[in-house]
Amino acid sequence: MIVVMKSDATQEEIDKVISTIRELGYKAHIIEGVLRTVIGAVGDERGKPYHLESLSVLPGVEKVVPILQPYKLASREVKPENTVVKIGNVKIGDNKIIVMAGPCSVESEEQIIETAMAVKQAGAAILRGGAYKPRTSPYTFQGLGEEGLKLLAKARKMTGLPVVTEILDAHDLDIVTEYSDMLQIGARNSQNYALLRYVGRCNKPVLLKRGMSTTISEFLMAAEYILSEGNQNVVLCERGIRTFETATRNTFDLNAIPVLKEKTHLPVIADPSHGTGYWQYVTPMALAAIAAGADGLIIEVHCRPEIAQSDGGQSLKPSKFSLLMEKAKPVARAVGRDI
Ligand code: PEP
Ligand code: MN
After folding, report:
1. DSSP 40
2. Which atom of ligand 1 is nearest to the CA of 187?
3. CA 157, CA 283: separation in Å to the nearest integer?
4. What is the DSSP string of 209-238?
5. Whose CA is nearest to atom 1 of ligand 1?
6. From the CA of 186, how far away is ligand 1's center (Å)?
């Protein structure tokens, strides 16, 4: 249920609604809008004799309405305005399109620092790089682990760019949180509900990637797991889905961008590197994603893709990445955005 407060409701009235929701056995999620406060009352109704409709009699309440979508807190029904997620000084979901860039994997100090400087120079706002890698084969490079996290922190110190990196296992939560500014949940863990709950309990922003065979509704339910634990700082990432097509690694689902933007208030970014799997297609799909309404991009960049430990074939060299950033400017402007 959504409890819509009157625009002149007092803090005392709001607090009373929150405590009543809790007494009835539900979680209260407070959403401060520009004009009024809305409180999402979410929880399992089974076995609870008192229904939330009764909240409509409390002072300061304008109306109590059911949330129709199964993803309650992620839905625009609860929060019509866009959510802006802050990673340090960087804001995702605002007018400015935010670009995250860096290698698929952190491989060495020299590699991550060289790449971090290059992507910063080209205009990236956030550095990406995997320290824990989800690889299809257990015999390939699995990432540098903690050493990789330390190198990312070093690159952040040198460039000032905040860092996003993947968390594969809840056991690593403390260490990944210590060294990074944003936690990435990868496609393979997109429906790992235990992990989603874990990151929902910490206060780091989360970059949630779409699973390669999850529907948009399932993707939003995955975000709901994080939001329902209290972490409101979730950014969604379309990274391509599995289809019958074999000419590309995945099929980048451009449709998903306007659909997600309509259904949720959360920021949506695009990953055309994994979405296509080939460096040649990354720039065209990055431009298409901006035109379709994406709030940002995440792009794999490697100074020597031919010797990359992972995803070299879909990584842009810094010069190509700079070109992408240049080409993105008029497209962003055409859809009323800055970059
Ligand atoms: C990655 O970002 O390198 C990655 C493994 O992405 P995904 O989870 O989308 O495959
Ligand atoms: Mn990768």
Report:
1. E
2. 8
3. 29
4. EPPTT--HHHHHHHHHHHHHTT---EEEEE
5. 104
6. 5
Residue with structure tokens 């996290």?
149
pLDDT at position 244 is 98
The pLDDT value given to residue 44? 80
Pocket of ligand 1 (CB under 6 A): 104, 130, 134, 186-188, 209, 239, 274
CA-nearest residue, atom 10 of ligand 1? 187
Distance from C-alpha of 1 to C-alpha of 79, rounded to nearest angstrom: 13
Query: How far, in Å, CA of 272 to CA of 277, rounded?
Result: 8
Yes or no: say if 307 and 293 are a contact pair by the CB < 8 Å rule. no
d(CA 235, CA 130): 18
Of all atoms in ligand 1, which is nearest to the CA of residue 134?
Answer: 5
Mean pLDDT rounded to a whole number for the chain: 96
Question: Over 90: is that where the pLDDT of 301 sits?
Answer: yes
Calculate what percentage of the chain has a pLDDT beyond 70. 100
Q: Whose CA is nearest to atom 3 of ligand 1?
A: 104
